[in-house]
Structures are given as structure tokens and as C-alpha cells.
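Progress note, sequence design subtask.
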């Protein structure tokens, strides 16, 4: 549901912009507002799940997410809609790390966990496909409001089923103490960073608001590091962040967030504003990306058992790079072009990289820290998504001089920026490959 919500809202952006009167530069707040709350609270959400129960936090997050979806669907004011997206992000920050850690603690490390994480990634890709197609159907035949309201019955059903299908899971620690100071500092740091990068293109990198946010992010990070060193039960143990696998996975996930979030916004606007397709046609055109992503997740474990996680990360980031390079030739007019089938390459690369980074990040980590690892991994992706959601559309607008309908030069340039992000991920995978332990390469 969390993944579906991201893709379903992208399809609805033009309709929301027209009905509620969003300015062109402010419509991105529908995406970045969610990203700020989601990214800022993920580490706190992950540690809370470890300490107070992963199933409990999973269910609490679903309740918050569903309530915010209802508020968003009923909103008649841009400010209220963006506020509901902030609350949705907070709910998602509880759901995502709790869900991931329920899997990594529920399956022993090795082939079984790898297969489980592959299915987790496949399910996310299925949500992506459903979001694209369902978003198009709902926007075209009902209203953009339905893209929020559809979450409510799904979320409530999941809350009802969770106690029957999921066992409770929490850290074995006797002291259930949350590092409140560390939680406030890291949340402030990440939220300020996401705000700065998401608004740099709109307000300007040298604007007082962006500079103040960057300064707040830097000072909060420094204070967080100092506080964690002296806390008896820190939110994040310094040794955890020094693990090569977690560093590699976080870096690649951040780059994945850049190309994935930016591509979705640019392509949604390209299909509807340049090719003049309907929201439904837009969803159907992008859906193959998720279908291939589902296959990459479902069969990722089998591929990893044959070639190793190291080669999976190299292969998938390389395929994503090739897909974006093909998309730099986006057609300026006409019907569906065979070139657009390159979204399937991007889908394979995105889902495969996400799967590989989850396996890499969770490898060798004690169960008591798996929720935190889920929070760190998801935080890196959301920070990247905030950058991509601001950067790629800004590239498109800058090249088109603010007039999207004037040509596709900006959209092609945005796809080139996506290719650069994927190529950087490939470089990270290649560089880190030699440092991975042999048994991880073939887990």
C-alpha cells in the first residue's frame, strides 16, 4: 500500500494541480511533503519497532496512514492536502521498517531469507504496477480523490488481519528505553536535509531558507553523533554504521531513490502534457516497468544463488543505466513508441537493486538491530527520492525554459540525469564488490 500510494499519486498530479489550483512550483509538495516526514522519521520508526514490537508498530503505522489517506481524499485546500501527506509519511515511517524487520527476523540468514526478501521486493513492484494502472482508472473515471480514499479499506483490512497472520517480534533487551534526544536530533537532521534538497530547485540553493535548512541538518547531525557516543543505550550504535554492507546498500539505495522518484514524476507529466495521453493510458504505459520489477524480485533469489549478490547489484544497476540512456531519445509526438519499452529495463534495474541492497544491508546484523537497519535503508532511499523528485523535474524545466509543451529536450535531459545516478550506483557496486565476503556473494 505504501508503494502503491507513491505511484498512484504521481499519475494524479496533473488533475490535483488543476482542481486545487497548485502553482507549478508548489505541486511537488504533494510528493516532497510525504518524503520529508517519511525520510525524517524512518530511523526513529525502525528503532521503535525493535524496542516496542514490530507487529505493534506495523499496525499503528497502518492506522495513521489510513486516517491521513481519508483526510487527503476529503481535502479541498492545497495546504490541507499537503498536511495530510506529511501525516501519511509519518505512518509510512512506522510501517516500512517494521515490515522489513518482521521478514528479516522471521527467516534465518541464508537462502530462505533471500527468497523472502525477493518476494518482499516483488510485492512492492506489484504495488507499483497497481498504483500506475489503478491511478489511471480512478482519475479518468472518478476523481483524483479516489487515489487517497482507496487506501482506507485496504489499510483497515490489513490492521484486522495482522494479529491473526503475524507473530509479535521485538528486541530481547530487558530495558525498553528509547534514546529520545538521539531520535529528535536524527529526525531533525534528515527532515531538514530533505527539505533543503527538495526546495533548492524552487527557492534557489543560496536562498536563506535552503541555507538555514542545510545548517540545521549539519548541526543536528554533529550533535547526534556526539550524543550517541556518550549515551548508554544509543539509538544507533556507531559500529553498525561502519559495516561495509550497510554503507554500500545505503549509498546505492539513495541513488536508486534519485532515479526512481524523478523518473516517475517526469514520465507522468511527459505522457500527459507532451503526448497528451489520458491518466489511464499513462498508467498502462508505465506499468510494464513494475511488471518486470515483480519478476526481478520473484526470481532475484534464484539469480543470486547462481551469480551471487555482488553480481546481482552490478547487473541490475548496469541494466538501469542502459534503460535511462535509451529514454534520452524520448519521442516528441505520436503514439506509443518502441523506445518507451525501455521502462522495463529501468524496472528490472530498480527492483533488482532494491532486492540486492536489502540482502546486503541485513547480512550479519543481529535481530535486535534489524528494525533499525530497515529504517536506515529506507531513509537513504527517501533522501534520494527527495533529491530526485526535485532534481529531475528541475532539469526538465530548465532545459525547456519553463515550457514543457514546447519540446522534449528537458525530459530527455532529465532521463540523462537518471542515467548518471544509475551509473554512479554501478560504480559503487563495482568498487564494493571486492570487499564483500565470499559467503555473502553467494547467499
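Output:
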Amino acid at each position: 500500500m505504501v508503494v502503491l500510494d507513491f505511484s498512484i499519486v504521481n499519475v494524479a498530479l496533473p488533475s490535483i494541480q488543476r482542481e486545487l489550483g497548485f502553482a507549478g512550483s508548489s505541486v511537488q509538495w504533494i510528493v516532497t511533503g510525504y518524503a520529508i516526514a517519511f525520510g525524517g522519521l524512518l530511523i526513529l520508526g525502525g528503532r521503535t519497532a525493535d524496542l516496542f514490537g514490530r507487529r505493534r508498530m506495523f499496525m499503528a503505522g497502518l492506522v495513521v496512514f489510513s486516517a491521513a489517506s481519508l483526510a487527503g481524499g476529503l481535502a479541498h485546500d492545497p495546504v490541507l492536502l499537503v498536511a495530510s501527506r506529511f501525516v501519511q509519511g509519518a505512518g509510512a515511517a512506522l510501517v516500512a521498517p517494521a515490515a522489513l524487520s518482521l521478514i528479516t527476523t522471521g527467516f534465518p540468514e541464508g537462502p530462505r531469507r533471500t527468497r523472502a526478501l525477493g518476494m518482499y521486493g516483488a510485492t512492492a513492484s506489484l504495488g507499483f504496477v497497481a498504483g500506475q494502472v489503478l491511478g489511471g482508472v480512478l482519475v479518468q473515471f472518478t476523481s483524483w480523490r479516489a487515489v487517497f480514499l482507496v487506501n482506507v479499506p485496504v489499510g483497515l483490512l490489513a490492521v484486522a488481519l495482522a494479529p491473526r497472520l503475524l507473530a509479535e517480534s521485538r528486541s530481547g533487551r530487558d530495558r525498553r528505553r528509547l534514546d529520545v534526544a538521539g531520535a529528535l536530533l536524527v529526525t531533525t537532521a534528515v527532515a531538514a536535509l530533505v527539505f533543503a534538497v527538495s526546495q533548492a530547485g524552487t527557492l534557489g540553493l543560496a536562498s536563506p531558507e535552503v541555507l538555514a535548512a542545510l545548517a540545521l541538518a549539519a548541526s543536528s547531525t554533529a550533535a547526534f553523533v556526539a550524543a550517541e557516543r556518550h549515551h548508554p543505550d544509543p539509538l544507533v550504535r556507531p559500529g553498525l554504521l561502519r559495516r561495509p554492507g550497510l554503507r554500500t546498500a545505503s549509498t546505492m539505495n539513495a541513488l536508486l531513490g534519485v532515479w526512481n522518484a524523478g523518473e516517475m514524476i517526469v514520465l507522468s507529466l511527459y505522457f500527459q502534457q507532451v503526448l497528451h495521453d489520458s491518466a489511464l493510458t499513462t498508467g498502462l504505459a508505465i506499468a510494464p516497468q513494475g511488471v518486470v520489477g515483480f519478476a526481478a524480485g520473484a526470481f532475484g533469489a534464484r539469480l543470486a544463488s547462481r551469480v551471487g549478490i555482488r553480481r546481482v547489484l552490478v547487473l541490475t544497476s548496469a541494466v538501469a543505466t542502459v534503460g535511462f540512456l535509451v529514454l534520452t531519445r524520448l519521442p516528441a509526438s505520436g503514439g506509443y513508441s518502441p523506445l518507451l519499452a525501455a521502462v522495463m529495463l529501468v524496472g528490472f534495474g530498480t527492483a533488482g537493486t532494491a532486492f540486492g541492497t536489502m540482502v546486503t544491508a541485513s547480512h550479519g546484523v543481529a535481530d535486535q538491530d534489524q528494525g533499525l537497519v530497515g529504517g536506515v535503508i529506507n531513509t537513504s532511499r527517501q533522501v534520494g527520492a527527495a533529491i530526485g523528485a526535485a532534481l529531475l523535474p528541475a532539469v526538465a524545466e530548465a532545459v525547456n525554459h519553463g515550457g514543457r509543451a514546447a519540446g522534449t529536450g528537458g525530459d530527455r535531459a532529465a532521463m540523462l540525469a537518471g542515467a548518471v545516478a544509475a551509473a554512479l550506483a554501478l560504480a559503487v557496486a563495482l568498487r564494493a564488490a571486492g570487499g564483500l565476503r565470499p559467503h555473502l556473494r553467494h547467499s
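The domain at 2-165+235-433 is CATH 1.20.1250.20 (Growth Hormone; Chain: A;). Work on this subtask will continue into the next period as scheduled.
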